[in-house]
């Protein structure tokens, strides 16, 4: 990101982005100042913006003992959909990656690759959405980068966010930490995001049954960890869905996982959507679903904490970790049978995040 | 990045990348393990790879008092060129953004957006280049992300790297800190990168006159700061070239800048290339050129330190900060005249980084 002097922000002079806006000259500076810096308010300290943000290590250490660092690229198509847009997704995705590791998110970076011809008005809406979601999550966007590529060299807009956060002392979450007897919890219904994106593509002649669940989960996860400090692991069920999380956990922890299909919350409209299209909601991507594994003696407190949070009113205990069939995920069906829940080779839905 | 269990890394089963490799399922896991994780050796601690990397804050605090955080997307075309490739560029760019702010780089993230159909062999070469450059810079790639988009939705490969580093206590570099009388230094010749990229595109019917200068500058900058601890600011002259850096500095510091054209190192072959194509090397992007502004009493020591480093053998003092014409960059020409060096509206060369 270019350096910005101390004066009123410049305004971009075009309604669409041109290659000149990515060239490192004054056109790029105008675009960055007008669209991104003004939205993110990174300028609040009255300092010129440098290529790097600076954070006091003493202030970070007051909050925990380890720095968490994560990154994600977002290529969702379409850019805007029921319940969110690529900007909201880019903030939530990285905030949630930090939060599921037990970190309190502190600062985000935001790098954009823009296709020539992109409407500046759309960029402004997405930048405003990034800013709003960051405020909601209590995190600041502190640095960024802007590239513009020729028409046809990228599809409209890609955003990469990285995040730093602080992990409180004593917390030790990890995908390999589940043990037999542990209880598997989720905070909300499956498939809302995947269904919203599919419907938004307009290829299916179905209307959006539901809005994306895209949300920053750091508040919910903080409440969960307060109530259940012995929590073994938390994961967000994004690409690959709940099935991928349960399989990764089963393999990494060398345990079996047994879940009850009837206990898994799924909205009736999402179930209907999946039935119509022959999809399994276990594999649909989510952007507001956390899976937590807690020791049995803390399961009630953990579930109560989830349900007390606005993003967890439909939280449920969906299964347990077992000593049997390590590495395998088995689901009890409502008809008294069982089936293996495998990891898919690939997601049937590209570009859902 | 998906979670990786403790077992031998999986191998990707195709020679080209398919959409399934971005879907969050087992195909993506195989690609990530085979191509990226094995190259980056992020697995060295024998722990499963989580979505976030964790760094000890106590260890960071032992090295300085502030955390630096930066990000850059790389969309260079072509992916490979004389002197480097997009992977080397992605490491150097972020390492250099940290280093010019006075930070010692500690850890990088690496997020890739891959076009369906990309050759896995090319990805492997680029991943190896990332790993090699990171080793050279003394920094670790600790976390990442992989997305695959359909053919035509991106041009081959984009890489976004973010970096964290530590700024040593007492150091205070900033674009607004130059004062009249300060000396402007650069470590090496201008335009090598821009010329190498233009030649590599093959559109100009000229062969590569020179290799890109792409290099991690953190070692050079460390040596400079040891020799000249009063250094006011350092910038790398990437997009927009030397002209952009000098103009940003003149504006932010509210000083004039006066440079001598004859003092600016430019390789004869790059000068010839520019003459042939009507380009001004002051505006060409570089990936291994640092501009440093130092107080006059430390200028000799600073220049000696630069020249003693392998990346600074052609270092030169090219001008001074002045009280006259604040905000303006003026160049003395070899013919006894002067000319204003303005900031361009846009770079004539898109996608050079």
In terms of structural class, how would the helical and strand content of chain A be classed? alpha+beta
In whole angstroms, the N-to-C terminal distance of chain A is: 24 Å
Give the biggest beta sheet of chain A: 7 strands, mixed
Per the CATH scheme, the topology name of the largest domain in chain A is: Phosphoribosyl-aminoimidazole Synthetase, Chain A, domain 2
Q: What does the oligomeric state look like here?
A: homodimer
Going by CATH, the architecture of the largest domain in chain A would be Alpha-Beta Complex
Strand content of chain A: 15-25%
- Rg of chain A, Å, rounded: 21 Å
Low-confidence stretches of chain A: 1-6
Instruction: Write down the overall mean pLDDT of chain A.
Output: 91
Q: Most extensive interface: pair and counts?
A: A-B, 94 and 94 residues
Order of strands in the sheet with most strands of chain A: 9-11-8-12-10-13-14
Could you state the CATH homologous superfamily of the largest domain in chain A?
PurM-like C-terminal domain
The helicity of chain A comes to 25-40%
Total count of domains of chain A: 2
Shape of chain A: globular
Number of helices of chain A: 9
Explain the overall architecture.
The structure is a homodimer of 353-residue chains. Chain A is of the alpha+beta class and 353 residues long. In chain A, strand 13 (329-332) and strand 14 (338-340) form a beta hairpin. Chain A has nine helices and 14 strands. Chain A is globular and about 65 Å long. In chain A, strands 9-11-8-12-10-13-14 form a seven-stranded mixed β-sheet. In chain A, 30% of the residues lie in helices and 24% in strands. In chain A, helix 1 runs parallel beside helix 4 (120-137), helix 3 (86-100) packs parallel to helix 4 and helix 6 (218-227) runs antiparallel to helix 9 (299-307). Chain A has two domains: 19-167, 60s Ribosomal Protein L30, Chain: A (2-Layer Sandwich); 183-340, PurM-like C-terminal domain (Phosphoribosyl-aminoimidazole Synthetase, Chain A, domain 2). At the A-B interface, helix 1, strand 1, helix 2, strand 2 and helix 3 of A face helix 1, strand 1, helix 2, strand 2 and helix 3 of B. Chains A, B: This is Hydrogenase expression/formation protein HypE. Chains A, B: InterPro entries: HypE, PurM-like_C_dom, PurM-like_C_sf, PurM-like_N, PurM-like_N_sf.
């Amino acid at each position: 990101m270019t350096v910005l002097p101390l004066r009123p922000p410049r305004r971009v002079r075009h309604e669409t982005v041109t290659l000149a806006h990515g060239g490192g000259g004054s056109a790029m500076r105008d675009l960055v100042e007008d669209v991104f810096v003004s939205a993110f308010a990174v300028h609040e300290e009255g300092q010129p913006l440098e290529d790097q943000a600076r954070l006091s290590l003493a202030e970070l250490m007051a909050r925990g003992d380890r720095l968490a660092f994560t990154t994600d690229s977002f290529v969702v198509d379409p850019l805007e959909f029921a319940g969110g847009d690529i900007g909201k997704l880019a903030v939530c995705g990285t905030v949630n990656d930090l939060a599921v590791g037990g970190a309190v998110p502190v600062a985000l970076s935001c790098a954009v690759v823009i296709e020539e011809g992109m409407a500046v008005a759309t960029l402004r809406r997405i930048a405003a959405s990034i800013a709003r979601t960051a405020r909601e999550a209590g995190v600041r966007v502190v640095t960024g980068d802007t590239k513009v590529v020729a028409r046809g060299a990228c599809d409209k807009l890609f955003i990469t966010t990285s995040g730093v956060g602080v992990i409180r002392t004593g917390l030790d979450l990890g995908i390999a930490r589940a043990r037999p007897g542990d209880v598997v919890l989720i905070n909300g219904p499956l498939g809302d995001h995947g269904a919203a994106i599919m419907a938004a593509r307009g290829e299916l002649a179905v209307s959006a049954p539901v809005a994306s669940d895209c949300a920053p989960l750091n508040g919910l996860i903080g409440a969960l960890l307060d109530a259940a400090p012995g929590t073994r692991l938390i994961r967000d069920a994004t690409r690959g869905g709940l099935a991928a999380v349960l399989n990764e956990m089963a393999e990494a922890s060398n345990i079996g996982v047994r879940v009850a299909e009837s206990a898994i919350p799924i909205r009736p409209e999402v179930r209907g959507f999946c039935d119509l299209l022959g999809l399994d909601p276990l594999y649909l991507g989510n952007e507001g679903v956390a899976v937590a594994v807690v020791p049995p003696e803390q399961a009630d407190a953990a579930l109560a904490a989830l349900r007390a949070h606005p993003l967890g009113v439909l939280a449920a205990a969906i299964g347990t970790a077992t000593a049997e069939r390590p590495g395998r995920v088995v689901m009890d069906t409502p008809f008294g049978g069982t089936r293996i829940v495998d990891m898919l080779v690939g997601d049937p839905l590209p570009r859902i995040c």
